[in-house]
Amino acid sequence: MLASEAGELFGFIAEQIEMLLRTHCPDQLSGPEEVAVLNLGLDFSFPVYQTAIDSGVLLRWTKGFDIPSVVGQDVCELIQHEIALRRLPVKVTALVNDATGTIMSRVIFGTGTSGVYLEKLSKITKPLDGQFDDSSGKMFVSIEWGSFDNDLSVLPNTEYDIEVDRFSRNPGDQMFEKRVSGMFLGELLRTILAKLQDDPAVRLLDNIDADLGVSTGDQIPLYTRWAVDSSILSIAELDETDELETLRQKMFDALGVPFLCISIEDA
């Protein structure tokens, strides 16, 4: 998502909250009488510096989001401001990372990737600002391992990885995430296929140019950055038929390539 102002994102979220209330809790909005304030937990899957259970400053955007004005601001205050503008009886009382929000799994491999674990407070060396409950002696820690090895001292780095990173919204950042997460796997696949299709020694998707014509070939998803999602990889994993017809149909739908150009060998 690209936007110039915070209100475009957080205003949209507040509108969805209002729609939810009107659909499922109309009594909360129907009359002038005072109603109970509803507590809201904000699941925010971006790196933040959390200063309290209900406060956190955005450090940087990931997953293709880019709203520069939000970086360095408290995301709870931003969403609360939009909620207040709509006079909704809702208060943000907790901020959690998506990995923490799905703590039963402990690991997120979705649009992005991260992990969370339970650590003893005595072993946490960074300053813990703000208010928090220390009665358990433990705290969940979000690892934010999507940024693991950004200097690429360990991770492999192919020509395809380099190209995906170069045309991303945050070059040089989230380098592990760009190799394993759903936001980037589709683009990584598209980049590989496009280069193989252009390689005469490989002859992938043979005759595609003749069928499409040079003037229209550049407009199909195969040649369009960020036009292919990662679902095609799931189909590739699941289709075990001899003709791979399901996968070939998915390649037709996702890549915009004529079905007759997609051989079993291509799939």
Task: Describe the model.
The chain has 267 residues and is α+β, with helices and mostly antiparallel strands. The protein is 36% helix and 14% strand. It is built from 11 helices and 7 strands. The protein has a 3-stranded antiparallel beta sheet. Strands 1-4 form a two-stranded parallel ribbon. Strands 2-3 form a two-stranded antiparallel sheet. Helix 1 (6-24) crosses helix 3 and helix 5 crosses helix 7 (182-198). The longest helix has 19 residues, at 6-24.
List keywords for this structure.
single chain, 267 residues, alpha+beta, 11 helices
Beta fraction of the residues? 5-15%
Distance between the termini: 31 Å
**Helical amount among residues, as a percent range?**
25-40%
Can you write the helix and strand succession as a string?
HHEEEHEHEEEHHHHHHH
* H/I helix tally: 11
Rg over C-alpha atoms, rounded to the nearest angstrom: 23 Å
Number of strands: 7
Question: How do the strands line up in the largest sheet?
Answer: 5-6-7
Please describe the topology of this protein.
Blueprint: H1 6-24, H2 27-30, E1 38-43, E2 48-52, E3 55-58, H3 75-85, E4 90-96, H4 98-101, E5 107-109, E6 113-120, E7 138-142, H5 159-166, H6 177-180, H7 182-198, H8 208-212, H9 214-217, H10 231-238, H11 245-255
Parallel strand pairs: 1-4
Antiparallel strand pairs: 2-3, 5-6, 6-7
Helix pairs in contact: 1-3, 5-7
